[in-house]
Amino acid sequence: MTPLLLCSLALAINVPLGFLRQFYAKFSLGWIVCIHASVPIILYMRTSNNIGWELVPLTLAAAVAGQVVGSYFHRHWQVA
Asked: Transmembrane segments in this chain: where (predicted)?
């Protein structure tokens, strides 16, 4: 698995989670679960493909970007 594919998957996994996160009150249990649910999946993909720690900041940035994109979709879906 290439680093670009790993970052793309981190982004893609977090888009629906960012969408769902908008249904929960800030800092509630559901909100926290939506933010952290992708971490074990991304960690498993990174370790099973022998990708080192140097890509953690990139995968973290991709995960945050997925959360932002998902919340953006939710806000604009709610208006329509």
From this structure: 28-45, 52-73
